[in-house]
Design brief:
Blueprint (H helix, E strand, L loop, with lengths): L4 E4 L5 H12 L3 E6 L3 H11 L2 E4 L5 H15 L4 E4 L14 H29 L2 E6 L2 H5 L5 H21 L4 E8 L5 H4 L3 H9 L9 H12 L10 E4 L7
Helix pairs in contact: 1-9, 3-4, 4-6
């Protein structure tokens, strides 16, 4: 993957950071987007030499301008990992409109906003790798996450449709659905709740960001050219339990 340009949205912390580092190790020139945590972005640049760019993936015009900056600095995007996401949990009968739409715009709307900026170039060059990060909760649902689960479930249909449209143009499109991983987001879960979650994971532990990153790196590789339109569950068997 030497000199391939990879763009990872939400790529400066947690799963996104691990994915960005894994792609860099494969030889990619990596760009990572961020929105709220400047300190994490600066650390990634200083420690790993990964270029970081700030924009809101829920804003179409910001995505257009941001991807143009990535292309100007590193070259056209060959590998896109749509990873950026937020949560705004609440039971549905208490959820307000902002909680619903903020999550939908960021977690699902960004799939259009970012991918639309790179797809024509990939088709023209007859090469591209797109990996969309969903979630186990898009598979099975979760109390208090109707907004998050709806957005993550939508990614499956988006992935399959985009894969069909672009398979003849050398572009693969796949989804990865991580289970519960040891990230800042999961660390906010109450200890007793987290203990119950781990008890329901057949392998007996939380995942690591690297567990997910290794799967993404494979799907982004040239060697994965016959894999498209698929979803890969990285959850320690939890969805089976």
């Amino acid at each position: 993957m030497d000199d391939k340009v990879a763009l990872v949205t939400g790529g400066t912390r947690g799963l996104g950071k691990a994915i960005a580092l894994a792609l860099r190790e494969r030889g990619c020139k990596v760009a990572a987007t961020w929105h709220g945590d400047e300190a994490a972005a600066r650390r990634l640049e200083e420690e790993a030499g990964i270029a970081t760019f700030r924009w809101d993936v829920a804003d179409f015009d910001a995505c257009r301008a941001g991807v143009a900056r990535v292309a100007e600095r590193l070259g056209p995007v060959d590998v896109l990992v749509n990873n950026a996401g937020i949560t705004a949990d609440a039971m549905f009968h208490k959820m307000d409109e902002a909680q619903w739409w903020n999550v939908l715009r960021t977690n699902l709307g960004s799939m259009f906003n970012v991918t639309r900026q790179v797809i024509e170039g990939m088709r023209a060059r007859h090469y591209g790798r797109i990996v969309n990060i969903s979630s186990i909760n898009g598979r099975k649902g979760q109390m208090g996450q109707s907004n998050y689960a709806a957005a993550k479930a939508g990614i499956f249909g988006f992935t399959k449709s985009l894969a069909l449209e672009n398979a003849a143009h050398g572009i693969t499109v796949n989804a990865v659905a991580p289970g519960y991983c040891d990230t800042d987001m999961v660390a906010k879960v109450k200890p007793e709740v987290l203990q119950a979650i781990v008890a329901g994971i057949p392998v007996g532990r939380l995942g690591t960001p690297q567990d997910v990153a290794r799967m993404v790196a494979f799907l982004a590789d040239e060697a994965a050219g016959f894999v498209t339109g698929a979803t890969f569950d990285v959850n320690g068997g939890q969805y089976l339990a």
